[in-house]
Amino acid sequence: MTAIDDLLARAEITDVLSRYAHAIDRGDRPLARTCYHPDATDDHGRFSGPVDELFEFFERYGATLAGTYHFLGVPAIVLEGDRAEVETYCLYRKNPLDGEAVFQGLRYFDVFERRSGRWLIARRTVILDWEHAAPPPPAVGSPDTWKRGARGEADPAASLTRALRGG
């Protein structure tokens, strides 16, 4: 692999990771599904198995959440031909529709494979390093002049989601 090929692979893998986080937080599960190979597997803690079943689980579980937030660190990538082992640190907050928000320190341990010229996740293991009840909302909230994140077309960055989908 040339130095340029190495840089291109790392950029594509990093793009897949950020597309996944964006899609999940915006509630666009079909876009998140594009980050995996068709036969991928995922051990996501609450679910472990084929990726299509994971997204069926996400449909049910996602309906119990008001929102999620993924903040990804820089991935550590070890390339070996058409295979890469990738570890990405993630700060994750989930806000249930009822109940307290939870803040977690996670790591995504992924095996990426390049098939038909595309790097996608072939196997994912989510590692939970720590979790806490999230802090309560501030006593004095930010004014309504702030743009607020939302799922779907209500999000101020919905044009980015459409562009990531290719449309």
UniProtKB/TrEMBL annotation:
It comes from the Bacteria. CDD domains: NTF2_like (cd00531). Coiled coil: none annotated. It holds the Pfam family SnoaL_4. InterPro entries: NTF2-like_dom_sf, SnoaL-like. Residues 138-167 are annotated as: Disordered. Residues 6-125 form the SnoaL-like domain. Residues 145-154 have a biased composition (Basic and acidic residues). This is Nuclear transport factor 2 family protein. The lineage of its organism: Bacteria, Bacillati, Actinomycetota, Actinomycetes, Pseudonocardiales.
